[in-house]
Write a structure and sequence with these properties.
The chain has helices at 15-19, 45-49, 61-74, and strands at residues 3-6, 25-28, 32-35, 55-58. With 77 residues, it is of the alpha+beta class. It has a single domain (3-74), classed as 2-Layer Sandwich (Alpha-Beta Plaits). It has a two-stranded antiparallel sheet with strand order 1-4. A two-stranded antiparallel ribbon has the order 2-3. A hairpin with a 3-residue loop joins strand 2 (25-28) and strand 3 (32-35). Residues 2-30, 31-60 form the 4Fe-4S ferredoxin-type domain. This is Pyruvate formate lyase activating enzyme. Keywords: Iron, Iron-sulfur, Lyase, Metal-binding, Oxidoreductase, Pyruvate. Its EC number is 1.97.1.4.
C-alpha cells in the first residue's frame, strides 16, 4: 500500500483538497494541508494534482507517520 504525505513544499493552493475523491485532505490552521490517512483511498489523485510536487509517497506506514510529524514540527506556529 502507498501512503501519501504532504510536505513542506505545500503552497496551500488547495488543488489536492478539491481533487481528492475521498475528501481525505484537510487544511490545518490555515497554514498546511494534511492527508487524513484513515480516509485516504491511496489512489494517487492528490499526488497527480499537486503542481508543487509537495506530496511524497511512502511504502511504509511508519515512515509516512514520521514524515508527517517532521513536517508538522517544522512549520511555524
Amino acid at each position: 500500500m502507498k501512503y501519501y504525505v504532504i510536505d513542506r513544499g505545500c503552497k496551500l493552493c488547495d488543488a489536492c483538497y478539491w481533487a481528492c475523491p475521498a475528501k481525505a485532505i484537510r487544511i490545518v490552521d490555515d497554514v498546511r494541508a494534511e492527508i487524513i490517512q484513515d480516509q485516504c483511498r491511496h489512489c494517487g489523485v492528490c499526488y497527480d494534482s499537486c503542481a508543487n510536487e509537495a506530496i511524497s509517497i511512502y511504502d511504509d506506514a511508519a515512515a509516512a507517520q514520521a514524515a508527517i510529524v517532521r513536517f508538522a514540527q517544522s512549520r511555524p506556529s
